[in-house]
Amino acid sequence: MTASLGRPLILLALLAASAGALVGFAAGVRRSAAGLAWAQRLAYAYAAAMISANLLMVYALLARDFSVGYVAQVGSREVPNWVAVTSLWSSLEGSILFWGLMLGLYVLGATWTNRHRHPESMPWAIGVWLACAAFFSFLIAGPAQPFHTVPIPPSDGPGPNPLLQNHVLMIIHPPFLYAGYVGMTIPFCMAAAALLSGRLGPDFMRSLRTWLMLPWVFLTCAIVLGGWWAYEVLGWGGYWAWDPVENASLLPWLTATAAVHSAILVERKGILKGWTVTLILASYLLTVLGTFMTRSGVFNSVHSFTQSAIGPTILVFLALATLFAVAILALRIDRLSPEGHLEPGVSRDMAFLLNNLFFVLLTFTVLIGTVFPLVVEALRGVQMSVGRPYFDRMVVPIGVALLFLLGVGPAVPWGRASAEQARRALLPPLGGAVGLGALGLALGVRNPWTLVALLFGGYAAFVTLSELWLPVGQRIKVRGEGVLEAVAHVQSRGRRRVAAFIVHGGMVLVMIAIATSSTQGVSIEAQLVRGESVALGPYTLTFLGVDRVSEPHREALVANVEVKKGGRDLGVLTPRMNYYATQREPVGTPAVRSTYAHDLYLSVLNLDAQGQTLGLHAMINPMIVWIWIATGIMGLGGLFGLLPSRRVVVALAPAMAVDGSLSPARSR
Question: What would the CATH number be for the domain defined by 522-624?
């Protein structure tokens, strides 16, 4: 019954998306108000069908309806309900269906919020995003059909991949990643609409930037949540290994971050329009490339849980989308003529440009390191790998340069600065640089790159805090307001500016924490018999024995390790080995004790079933917790910037000419 309801919903979504794309393009060509209205209705129909199909699949997973093909593939009566729900995105068919859900939500939100705005551009935008929706609906209806009926349903299923059952972060990380990946569809389509309509005015640029920022926030959090999952689950003690699938999520984030910055120059000075549109188009194409990486099986990765034959289909879509982007850029980019000019010399304008160039350079560096082994294998039949040494050698200098610009850029004024202005802006933050660098030396930091990162991080932190305080201090001094009142006025009238510096502050903290944790940690490996102890830094670790734990969906051997520091008892940490019926090898779960200074990280290398011996990997990882905290700050800052401030441009309903054609919306 569930399968027979699900298939028509997918076909309805495919029909609505295909028809809506055609109607949207026709409305754009003819500037038809009636065509735009019908394109909007079809967008709503697509969203409703796709949301309904996903809700139906969640019901089937919770009801353990094994007559549905996808449930028979990943469902299980033994797993808890939270694992049953996360099974929706644990394998190929469900993950593509979940992609459709996210795209439906984005199409619904973008169509609704812009229903009375940008009438000259929205028909094109709706047409393009429904064309993208039609492709993914085709995948769900055909190669990745999750609702096929099982003639003889099994009594139980195997459950999802054990790695996806091993940590609660699997409830959060994939939805955030999909919200970031899929969300890049909307700015891609709006950028294409700007080219097709030949318009990229300030009001449309604000909408475009908003729909770029939202998936950027989700993708930022998703990247770090993925690192957190790897840190808490895989047991090797790190959070980023330059894995191809990790890189796949980083690539669109880099270009989207560059686009967010260059969009500011478009809004303020009417320059870099074509460059900004190009970055936005590239961001979406890189998300499709990332989807190919995770769904084709061409890359071996602990993060790639699904391998199938749909890889070539996605590759064809990537080729068509790239050709479309290149064609409209070649034919229409000259329509987006600049309205101002870039100020040379020491200026915030030039800092933004350099920021963009470094982000693009970093993107190419990571992209080459990720796909080069695949290209070599395809052309020469030789298997090779590009490992961490390449990425560290190439990426670290670029990252440090970006950290430098993160401090210098906001310090200098817009427009060309005089020598005196440059001195007044750039010299005071040196105190922050010297202070943090000296603190690092005092705490034993000797790695040259880490010290440089601390110096630039201290500089950027000084600038960020100064810029956040500057308008507050001015209101207190000039108007005599209290601190809270001044903060309230500043954040309500300049919300985007405040949000930008909150994000910058989080980014500075992330980069300092990454630099420190990557170079200042210590670790040991030890083989312990029951009752034996080993020292690691200030800690004494004593193996107490093993507990056997039986859960509905797995068995586990849990090592009990007593932790003492300076003679003070800190309790017992319990790293474990989990055994799943569908997995030959056990899956380890490390135990982590986090403080604001460092993490004590314990993972099991080997474990005697009788509880007499333990192979232990123990690490002290400094500043790890600040990576998670700082990413939360960045995410909250980005969301804060999406809230409307008091100074907004209110767009009226689109004016309609006597002949029924659309005319640009007026604003006041």
Answer: 2.60.98
